[in-house]
Amino acid sequence: MAEKIGIGIIGAGGIAEYAHIPAYLQQSDARIVAVADVVPERAQALAEKNGIPRAYGTIEDLLLDPDVEAVSITTPNAFHAPISSAALEAGKHVFCEKPPAISAEEVRRVKALAERSGKTLYYCLNNRFRPDVMQLRRYVQNGELGEIYYAKTWTIRRRGAPGGWFANKQMSGGGALIDIGVHCIDWTLFIMGNPQPVEIFGVTYSKIKKYDLEDHRTWSPPEVRGQAQMDRAVDVDDMATALIRLDNGATLSVEVSWSLNVEQDHENTELFGTRAGASMRPLKLFRDEYGRMVNLEVKMPERPPATGHSRAIRNFLDTIQGKDKPVVTPDDGIRIMQILDGIYASAESGKSVTIGAKSLVEAR
Length: 364
Hints:
Layout: E1 5-10, H1 14-25, E2 30-36, H2 40-50, E3 54-56, H3 59-63, E4 70-73, H4 80-89, E5 93-97, H5 104-117, E6 121-124, H6 131-141, E7 148-156, H7 169-172, H8 176-192, E8 197-205, E9 239-246, E10 251-257, E11 266-273, E12 276-279, E13 284-289, E14 292-297, H9 308-320, H10 330-349, E15 353-355, E16 360-362
Parallel strand pairs: 1-2, 1-4, 2-3, 4-5, 5-6, 7-10
Antiparallel strand pairs: 7-11, 8-9, 8-15, 9-10, 11-12, 12-13, 13-14, 15-16
Helix pairs in contact: 1-9, 4-5, 5-10, 6-8, 8-10
């Protein structure tokens, strides 16, 4: 391996420009050597802006580049698994933006390819690296909360539907649930020690498809960025809720939305254990001490020294070089996609579903 690992960026959209590329530029042992996009002009513009030597108009050309040793995949969701597979077959390490794929079965196939190739497959579940997530996980690991038997997590936006390809199920695989629900579900399970899902009941809604607001922040992809009027949930969910039974006996309640008529955006995780409870934002613990009920607030850094993407990419590079173990494994990708698959399947059938070893089986 070269002194600096050669990185290829596949997909020249916002997540590449504002998250992946800045994170790689912070790493002393990596260099971005190429970027590819199906819109060649977009790849060229991103390359010129960031001093990247080569820009390609096809993924195939980037994968043929001998200087590319690892790739970051920052494309629409439907292409995550096919591009991951092609990159692994080309002998490249893979760092793939969330969600891992659009189904658990796709992740299983990609995992098998990674095992055969001997290359690293790493999914960007970057919120695991948030300081509040890591700190709360330490409390759980050290038994401060006792047995956690119930948890709640939510990510709620009042008006935060991206539109563009995010609103098209064929490209995205789903809506708010697969876009932002993937994060809060994953970080909560990570804090809890990664219990496995057993049974799921879920409901999804697609109710607020359009809105027109002035000076409104948006997560829209480049092709629709700046448009006030657009279809924001063509055939995908803008809100989802679920109840997940876990193999350790605990239950997890989930709420996510792109568009919901609430006072303001908010996200959090709450844990309830036999010794104490906890709330993540801000990080607080609730317990009894010396005959009194005590609320303990943990002071966290206002501005973490590194972003979640930067920390995830650091761990990815260390994993490639054998310096550290991966914080995110392919099995983590399978688990989160099983849950997302289960919520969507339950919402479609109106019944709970159980999670089997390889497929979803209707429970009743």
